Amino acid sequence: MEYVVYEQKGAVGIVTISREKALNALNSTVLEELNATFDAINLDEVRCVILTGAGQKSFVAGADIGEMSSLTKAEGEAFGKKGNDVFLKIENFPIPVICAINGFALGGGCEIAMSCDIRICSDNAVFGQPEVGLGITPGFGGTQRLARLVGPGMAKQMIYTARNIKADEAYRIGLVNAVYTQEELLPAAEKMAAGIAKNAPIAVRNCKKAINEGLALPMDKAVEVEEKLFGDCFETEDQKYGMAFFLDKNKEKVKEPFKNC
What integer pLDDT is reported at residue 249 of this predicted model? Predict the structure, then answer.
């Protein structure tokens, strides 16, 4: 890989976009490498993934404007599809993905962050969808995910004005879950990921699936999705270990749940 670095720490995988000289901007190569990296993650060993950017100045400053500037209509649509395919893969990845946003998250950077399950950022983070200032719309899901995360009114304001917001405002409107110092950001992401990894892996996967699928459905249909996934858990060793461990008063007869699942 030229621009994407992957490492595994126990049950946590860390994906780093490493194109620091270009502020980690997304070009076709980065998108292809991200796609291949997520495909290669060992889901038998990894229970949570952290996505971040190299350096402290920029998470992802956006899509590569140099690459986009000469695209035709058809090529623009194809580039949008390439980004959307990768971001949908991240959004629908079987295990949770935490985005650790260090610095700029503009355009495609904000969009890839929104495709993750949980977003935390450093206190120097800056978010925005500046595309209308370049004569284009957001092309990697920005018009859709931003409205779902912060509400249509706030999303329209950010997109129409192309105004950037800082970390504290991103937290206030619910775009990120927490703000940390630059030094604390990655350790905080790793601590959260380790906490997720300790829980029943099949149950966590089913929770992600239930939330993602249910959001697109009316409540009466959404709870049917949950019912099925809830029922499926009762066929797993996770459920047997977890409930036996809970019921064992001295916690000695049953091994620590989920340790080897």
Answer: 75
Token pair listed for 98:
């935490």
Q: How far is CA 124 from the centre of its chain?
A: 19
Residue 160 DSSP class? H
Tens-place pLDDT, residues 64-97: 999 999 999 999 999 999 999 999 999 999 999 9
Cα(114)–Cα(158) distance, rounded to whole angstroms? 14
Measure the CA–CA gap between 221 and 108, rounded to whole angstroms. 32
**Residues 194, 12: contact at Cβ < 8 Å?**
yes
Report residue 23 CA to chain centroid gap. 19
Cα–Cα distance between 172 and 150 in angstroms, integer? 10
Question: Does pTM surpass 0.85?
Answer: yes
Residue 40 structure tokens = 């290669």
The neighbouring-strand residues paired with 216 are none
Please, are residues 92 and 38 in contact by the beta-carbon 8 Å criterion? no
Which amino acids are annotated catalytic?
A: 111, 131
Nearest to 53 by CA among 123, 118, 125, 117: 125
- CA nearest neighbour of 181 among 76, 100, 93: 100
Q: Decide: helix, strand or coil at residue 260.
A: coil
**pLDDT tens for each residue of 63-73:** 999 999 999 99
Rounded distance between C-alpha atoms, residue 199 and residue 203, angstroms? 8
Q: 32, 33, 31, 5: which is closest to 18 by C-alpha?
A: 5
Residue 195 burial (CB count, 10 A)? 10
What is the per-residue burial (b if ≥16 Cβ within 10 Å, else e) of 121-150? bbebbbbbbbbeeeebebbbbbbebbbebb
